[in-house]
Amino acid sequence: MQVFPSASPKKLPEKTYCLLPTPEKTSSSACISWPGEYDYGGLAIRGLGKGDQVSYIVTSEGLRCGFLSSPIGKWEEQEIETLGDLDVLVLPSDDPKAVQHIVEEVDPPVVIPLRGKDAKAYQEVLKICGAKDSEPVKEVKLKKSGLPTDTRVVYVLEE
Known about the structure:
Elements lengths: L1 E2 L14 E2 L11 E2 L3 E5 L2 E8 L2 E8 L2 E5 L9 H7 L4 E5 L3 H11 L3 E5 L4 H11 L23 E2 L5
């Protein structure tokens, strides 16, 4: 699955899906860009509209992952409640205060901050999340049974 690519892909590999951060009138049938509920090959996907942006909750094999689009902005309590209980939260690092508020309210066992254009904001988000000195990883593979129960793990993705 490709989440928030820099441009809408023209062609995707077979069984690959794409989640776009803003609604598009014409996109590939394998791309989702509108709020709503979708089922793709065992993935339950819910698009959440916030202004002209779309964020997503993806559920697979009992694992609930939230992907928040950028810019993150301020999320109100009702919007955070819409996210529900998440196992994994993937979010942009463009607003450290907003990130801190969302992470504290959602309290997911796994957080994956995404790099943005502002390196200073990204470093602040890593500090807020508790991953300032974490080693970057190329990819993250998780299963519901392997999630931490009494702590939070923050993954830093390689550039």
